[in-house]
Amino acid sequence: GAEERCQRLESRAEAAEKEVEVTRRQVEEFRQRVKDLKLELSSLSQHVDRKTAELASVMIERDELSYKLEAANEKLSSATEQMGILKAAVAQESSQRQLLTLQHHGLREECDRLQSTVEKLDQINTENMLAEKRV
Questions:
Q1: Does the pLDDT at position 21 exceed 80?
Q2: In whole angstroms, what is the distance from residue 9 CA to residue 115 CA?
Q3: pTM of the predicted model as reported, rounded to 2 decimal places
Q4: How far apart are CA 26 and CA 32, in angstroms?
Q5: Over the stretch 73-94, which tens digit does the pLDDT of each residue have?
Q6: Shortest CA distance to 101 belongs to which of 89, 93, 112?
Q7: How far apart are CA 97 and CA 6, in angstroms?
């Protein structure tokens, strides 16, 4: 009776101790896993911080490049506008030159006609003077 009960209690106590030991090991494993996960989380957090800093730096660089591009576009627009003005001025100068060339040709023709007329009149005058001397 009593000895059997004693042995049964001892068996149950041993079984309970084994369960406690298994549970202790599981708790220790969980503690280790929590510790490992905390380290991993810390590492990931640092990685996120680094990437955030990189992103901020890249965004600053992008803004600077965007500003430079805008400035370059303004300069290009201005240069294009000035080229248009110069082309118009060159075209105007060219048409004025053509007009002056035409006027020059016209004046030359007029001069040639006048020269020819003067020569004819001179010849007629000479002929008249000769005719008068004969008379």
A1: yes
A2: 153
A3: 0.47
A4: 10
A5: 999 999 999 999 999 999 999 9
A6: 93
A7: 132
Q: Is the pLDDT of residue 59 over 80?
A: yes
Q: Which two tokens stand for residue 101?
A: 């060339």
Amino acid at 118: V
Instruction: Say how far apart CA 104 and CA 97 lie, in whole Å.
Output: 10
pLDDT bin (cut points 50, 70, 90) of residue 51 is very high
Can you tell me the distance from the alpha carbon of 57 to that of 52, in angstroms, rounded to the nearest whole number?
Answer: 9
Mean pLDDT of the chain: 96
The encoded tokens of residue 9 equal 């209690």
Rounded Cα distance between 63 and 71, Å, is 12
What is the 3-state composition of the chain as percent helix, strand, coil, each rounded to the nearest 5? 100, 0, 0
- Whole-Å CA distances, 78 to 87, 89, 90, 92: 14, 16, 18, 21
State both tokens at 4: 């059997």
